[in-house]
UniProtKB/TrEMBL annotation:
Name the record gives this protein: DeoR/GlpR transcriptional regulator
Superkingdom per UniProt: Bacteria
Keyword check for Cell membrane: no
InterPro entries in the cross-refs: Carb_Metab_HTH_regulators, DeoR-like_C, DeoR_HTH, NagB/RpiA_transferase-like, Tscrpt_reg_HTH_DeoR_CS, WH-like_DNA-bd_sf, WH_DNA-bd_sf
Domain named HTH deoR-type: residues: 4-59
GO MF terms held by the record: DNA binding
UniProt keyword terms in alphabetical order: DNA-binding, Transcription, Transcription regulation
Classification via Pfam families: DeoRC, HTH_DeoR
SMART domains: DeoRC (SM01134), HTH_DEOR (SM00420)
Record SUPFAM superfamilies: NagB/RpiA/CoA transferase-like, Winged helix' DNA-binding domain
Length: 261
């Protein structure tokens, strides 16, 4: 039988991708009873992940609109898969950091879903630090997640907060792990963004974390970014969907573990 956590994930995916789903449709797709589906929908509705309607559920604009738009970006399905793998690394009581961007937003959504559906987080919550206002907006309604937003100026193209205030706050925080989305990865030179100010804040996130996990689909290994975030000295692992043998070997020399999912 499908676990409740996997079932809730599938239900939420179907509701967000289609905008709505009927109990009968979910029942057929998942092979469980209508009563089970209704209980699952009620649980997702209680977490404000969907809105219950007669006979099923519709996407909750607050929690679903931004992630749904990001799903339509290039490599959207790969990003979802990578985000799920990243979310599995989160443990109750962790203090984690997430920067802005499409991949990081998917990671935040998957973390929110895991925390909302995993009973291990009911007695020990999670703290999430971010410089992305869209991520803060989505996660602030989750009772099991304490959200810390770094201060500064919001950039409308990425929803990221930048500026000296962000760096000052991050200097005074200690995080178990940072999940970092990047514009490009050069296996010889390091991690890159396409904006100097965002690259500075990303570097501050790395410096404040005990462990750094880069989440990047395969296109990031051929993309070009103009602003270097960091070399690989602070990077512990990269979660990706595909990597060439040459890049894997180069990253191994830097001590970076590559996790393909």
């Amino acid at each position: 039988m499908t676990s409740q956590s996997a079932r809730l994930t599938k239900i939420l995916d179907m509701v967000l991708e289609q905008g709505a789903a009927k109990v009968e449709q979910l029942e057929a797709a998942l092979g469980v009873s209508a009563a089970t589906i209704r209980r699952d929908l009620d649980r997702l509705a209680n977490q404000q992940l969907v809105t219950r309607v007669r006979g099923g559920a519709v996407a909750n604009p607050l929690s679903g609109d931004l992630p749904l738009r990001y799903r339509q970006a290039n490599h959207g399905r790969a990003k979802q898969r990578l985000a799920r793998a990243a979310a599995k690394l989160v443990q109750p009581g962790d203090i984690i950091g997430v920067n802005g961007g499409t991949t990081s937003t998917e990671v935040a959504r998957e973390i929110a879903l895991r925390v909302s559906t995993d009973s291990a987080f009911e007695h020990e919550s999670l703290t999430l630090v971010t410089n992305a206002v869209n991520i803060a907006n989505e996660l602030v309604v989750r009772p099991q997640i304490k959200v810390i937003v770094v201060g500064g100026v919001v950039r409308p193209n990425s929803y990221e907060i930048v500026g000296n205030l962000s760096g000052v706050i991050l200097e005074n925080l200690a995080m178990n792990r940072v999940f970092l989305g990047v514009v490009s990865i050069d296996s010889a030179r390091g991690l890159f963004n396409d904006d100097l100010l965002e690259a500075e804040i990303n570097a501050d996130f790395l410096a404040a974390a005990a462990r750094v996990t880069v989440v990047a689909d395969s296109s990031k290994f051929t993309a070009v970014g103009v602003a270097r975030i960091s070399d690989f000295s602070l990077v512990d692992e990269i979660i990706t969907d595909s990597v060439s043998a040459e890049d894997r070997a180069a990253l191994a020399q830097h001590g970076v573990e590559v996790i393909e999912v």
